[in-house]
Amino acid sequence: MLLHVQDILGLVVLGLQGLMFFALSTKSTTIALGSPWLVIGPRFFVVYAITTCLLLCYVYFTKPSWLKHVVIGIHFLTTLSVAAFVYQLGFGYDPFLHRAAEKDILAHGVILPRTPFYIGQYVLITILVLVGHIPLFFADAWLVMMLTSLFLPLCVFYVLRYHFSFEKNLSHVGSVCILLVSFIAFFVTTPHNFATLLTLLTFMLGLVCFSYRKFFPIVVGVSLFAFAVHPLSGMFAVLFVIGIALWLYKDRFPKPIYKGTWVALCAGSLVVMPFLFFSYLLLKGVSLPSPMIIFSRLSVFADVFGRPYYYHNSPSASFLLDTLYSYQMLIPVVLVFLGLYGWYRTFRKTTWLTVLMFIFLLSNVFFLSTWVVISDLNTFEQVQYAQRLRHMLLFPLLLFSLYSVLLFFSWLRKKHVFFQLLFLGIMSVCITGSFYLTYPQQNKKTHFPGYNVTSADIEAARYIEADTADGASHVVLSNLLTAAASIDQFGFSRYYDTDKGLLFYYAIPSGSPLAEAYRNLVYVAQDKQYIDDVFALTGVDRVYFVISSFWSGYADIVAGMSKHADEIQVINNGAITIFRYDR
Fold first, then answer.
1. Triad 57, 62, 64: Cα angle to 5°
2. Are 202 and 234 in contact (CB under 8 A)?
């Protein structure tokens, strides 16, 4: 049988997606790389934009088909798998910690010290490895991006189709257009990212419950699983479901109790994150900060929504980069206004809950950034908690934003087909811009300071482990990546009881005295007194100082540390230098 035009278009899209997967598979590296885009050329973005445009044309102009769900899911996977392909050893820092915990659970059935956090992810990974016989690295590294690619476009489609009553083709367009949002949490697996995905799905599927009440138990299950994966990220999924339950079953409550419960829910939701953090600090015996510090930290709240410190206005930046980063600042604001307009156009009493969730999230971003202070973390990492919630701000309004976009596109359908194609083309370009912004960037406008775990980090960790095979107690002053490599290879193997509490033998977390000593040696001076202070604090036999070649001022740091080190070891032709100090 001859293929129909729609089949040919679908196969072309699949072919281009396969081409992109192949291109990504050839870019794998184990060296330090600040951005995946440093090894991926501009032609890849041209292919991505063309593929996105053809995909939008395919799902809009052709007859309904199950293949549309497949190609959309594959496009999501293409969008989210860049880091997984490029960074052969894994991307980021947190994933290595959680994989090490999962290794301990698989090996010993438990992780010590015991923690009530992250149980949902650890249980799921354990099942995938033991029952599904999936290798741990693959099961962990690909979990969130696979689940996102499978469930997010499907959820968007079904809510647009059955809650907002758009026809199938328009609902498919909406499920692609959600990629206008840079889902920076969904290309790497951590409990926070996993719970964030489940919270987004809860917000979306929760809308359907008002029309199909029998769907409510599924939404409850998703929200509880989100809470089990990460209580802080999943809390808003649970609060949303409680609000849905109050609305669905309001006839079962006396009116005063019903109103009182709503007041308590709203009041508690406004400050739920500070409450959880303060409860944790009290359990640790830490005194709580005064509410008065809020007024002195208002600028921190503003910074949460501003440019990161590594962004700079370079006069030599191209017009394309200037436009791209203007788009980055503009798109969240546009989506919020589109969301509020969509909410207004579809106003029902039930939809108040979605706007309330937006307000609750914004309130918690405010209090997390201005009131919560954790001594174990440096200022940059403390603000990250508020920044994580900031990325969730759009979630309650996201489907209403898509409603507004599709409403405009429905109006365009009455115009000439040229305008419809123009709209789809513009969406493709915007989605491509969001795709670029999803991952860390290093260019003339921004220079993301993070790097990846490299083969040199693993070799350095193994060298130190072999060098202490004689049983010498030791600590290691290194950056996060070398610490992550060691944890990945040897787990959470050593702790030391000191006057400043129980310390892990690598310089983590960022508030650790060992991390402070490392920063002093790197940024202040290569003074041996800092090493002597570590000896005095920990009582160990050896101290190792590890510096990577990509570090700013690497040559000066190496020269300074070489003056008083007992032994020096160079790893991977200078990629890392290790300095050993003996008591």
1. 120
2. no
Residue 439 has phi, psi (to 5 degrees) of -105, 160
Q: Are residues 461 and 562 in the same domain?
A: yes
374-400 pLDDT, tens digit per residue, is 766 666 667 888 888 999 999 999 999
Residue type, 158: Y
As given in the structure block, the two tokens for residue 531 are 């090493």
- Asked whether residue 516 carries a pLDDT value surpassing 90, the answer given is yes
DSSP run (H or E) holding 376: none
Tally the C-alpha atoms within 13 A of residue 28's C-alpha that lie toward its C-beta.
11
Question: What pTM value is reported for the model?
Answer: 0.93
Mean pLDDT lowest among 249-253, 409-413, 577-581: 249-253
Looking at residue 2, its pLDDT comes to 43
Assess whether 301 and 353 both reside in one domain. yes
| Helix (H) or strand (E) run with residue 117 in it | none
Q: Which two tokens stand for residue 418?
A: 């040229």
Q: What is the pLDDT of residues 430-449, one digit of tens each?
A: 999 999 999 999 999 998 87
Task: Give me the number of domains the chain comprises.
Answer: 2
Full domain range(s) for residue 493? 455-582
Are 310 and 442 within 8 A, CB to CB?
no
Let me know whether 468 and 390 are in one domain: no
